[in-house]
Write a structure and sequence with these properties.
- There is one protein chain.
- Helix 1 packs across helix 2.
- The chain contains four helices and four strands.
- The protein has one domain: Rossmann fold (3-Layer(aba) Sandwich), CATH 3.40.50.
- Helix content is 41%, strand content 16%.
- With 139 residues, the protein is α/β, with parallel strands linked by helices.
- The protein is globular, with a radius of gyration of 14 Å.
- It has a four-stranded parallel sheet with strand order 1-2-3-4, sandwiched between helices.
Length: 139
C-alpha cells in the first residue's frame, strides 16, 4: 500500500514539474484505488480535488489527518465492502477540517455500481465526478 501511495504522490509531483502543466491536479479513486488516493492526498497541498468512489482509508491507517483536498464522495447505499457509514464518516471528517465535502449516495447501488457504465446510476455518478473535478480544477 505504501508503495502505491508513494507512486501516486510521485505522479502528482511529476505533473507539477511539467512546463505546460496547468497547476492543478485532481484524483479519482475507486475501491482500493480510493484507499490509495485518499492516503496519497492527506496533507498534500498539491492535490486540488479528490473523488472517492466506495472506498476509505486503508486498514490500519494511523497517520493524523490535518488536511484534505476538496472532496466528492460517491457511494452505493448497498455497498457491503465499504458501507455507507464509511463515506458519511469521511464527509464529517473533511467538514471538521474545514474542507468542502459532498456525499452522493446512489440508492441500492452495490460496491461495483460505478464500474457498470451502461447503467443509469453509473452514468449519473460518472457525470457527478466529472462535474466536480471540472469545477474544482477550473478555478
Amino acid at each position: 500500500m505504501s508503495g502505491w501511495t508513494t507512486a501516486v504522490q510521485g505522479v502528482v509531483s511529476h505533473l507539477d514539474a511539467q512546463p505546460h502543466h496547468g497547476g492543478k491536479v485532481g484524483i479519482l479513486g475507486i475501491s482500493l484505488g480510493a484507499q490509495i488516493a485518499l492516503a496519497a492526498s492527506v496533507g498534500k497541498s498539491d492535490i486540488d480535488a479528490l473523488v472517492l468512489v466506495d472506498g476509505g482509508f486503508p486498514n490500519g491507517y494511523a497517520q493524523p489527518v490535518r488536511a484534505l483536498p476538496p472532496l466528492r464522495l460517491i457511494w452505493g447505499s448497498a455497498d457491503r465492502t465499504f458501507p455507507l457509514s464509511v463515506g458519511q464518516d469521511l464527509q464529517r471528517m473533511a467538514e471538521r477540517l474545514g474542507r468542502p465535502a459532498s456525499l452522493d449516495v446512489y440508492e441500492g447501488g452495490a460496491h461495483d455500481f460505478f464500474l457498470k457504465s451502461g447503467t443509469r446510476y453509473a452514468r449519473a455518478a460518472h457525470q457527478s465526478a466529472a462535474d466536480f473535478l471540472a469545477s474544482q480544477l477550473s478555478r
